[in-house]
Specification:
With 302 residues, this protein is an alpha/beta fold. It contains 9 helices and 10 strands. It binds guanosine-5'-triphosphate and magnesium ion. It comes from Gymnodinialimonas phycosphaerae.
Length: 302
Amino acid sequence: MPTRAGFIALIGEPNAGKSTLLNRMVGAKVSIVTHKVQTTRARLRGVAMEGDSQLVFVDTPGLFRPKRRLDRAMVAAAWTGASDADVVVLLIEATRGLTEGVQAILDGLKERTGDRKVALAINKIDRVEAPVLLKLAETLNAAYPFDETYMISAEKGHGIKELRAWLAAEMPEGPWLYPEDQIADLPLRMIAAEMTREKLTLRLHQELPYQLTVETEAWENRKDGSAKIDQVIYVARDGHKGILLGKGGETIKSVSKAAREEIAEFVGHPVHLFLQVKVRPGWLEESERYSEMGLNFKDGNA
Ligand SMILES: Nc1nc2c(ncn2[C@@H]2O[C@H](COP(=O)(O)OP(=O)(O)OP(=O)(O)O)[C@@H](O)[C@H]2O)c(=O)[nH]1
Ligand SMILES: [Mg+2]
């Protein structure tokens, strides 16, 4: 049997469940997930094996109508992910259906995918009734010539086996692209920064999560088997720093604890995490911040 390997881009509106699906496929949490939109900011690869096929899933930022430089760079990164992949999986939320945003994505897909296969994955089927689902599948297939339709719950695991088997068969013949035991293609320092950003996003409200970024500045593996990790949280305004710290430093403490526990579990050894908050009014216009996130600054040009 020849080996197969290829890239599968997961695209869709913000909050569709792309990162949840990637984590489910990989069998570990490598991409952060929140109930808020625009959680994922850059492309991230997760690797899964299925028989002789290596499936390299590419998680992408949600596709929406961008307003800021950061948003434009995110959307550009998502479309690049779709254009570079062997197969595209479009995730749609069963509860939302064919929205204006989905229609815009379908229009974009027609221009960009060429003769590549595009599968429709209707996600969150645990939240709707069967008749609604069937009607939605029909509507979406009338709007776009999908090669396949899958009804899944990325969170609960429904329909995942079928989607995986199809993807494995669709991968082009060729050598594996990653060692068999590798599950993610993102430096540890970035995964750790993302974990902290996830905890911040869960803890903070309104615009704040969208106005900050986290960077790992130093990572020191110590002789005792632990690691000392220094991270900086850039915020855009003085007032944000106060909110982030919270009364008596309560907020930042709880974020730090949650992030430390998750990073430690991921790396498999104890972690000492030090968070520093820096007010940087112009960070959303600094190219270095974008390269740290894995984004292209110029993609954000208006
Ligand atoms: N009920 C239900 N919730 C789900 C399912 N899949 C994902 N979710 C939830 O949907 C929310 C968004 O999930 P994400 O995986 O972060 O979505 P995303 O598409 O990566 O979002 P962005 O990164 O913002 O584009 C989270 O609260 C998930 O727990 C599912 O199958 N069923
Ligand atoms: Mg995501």
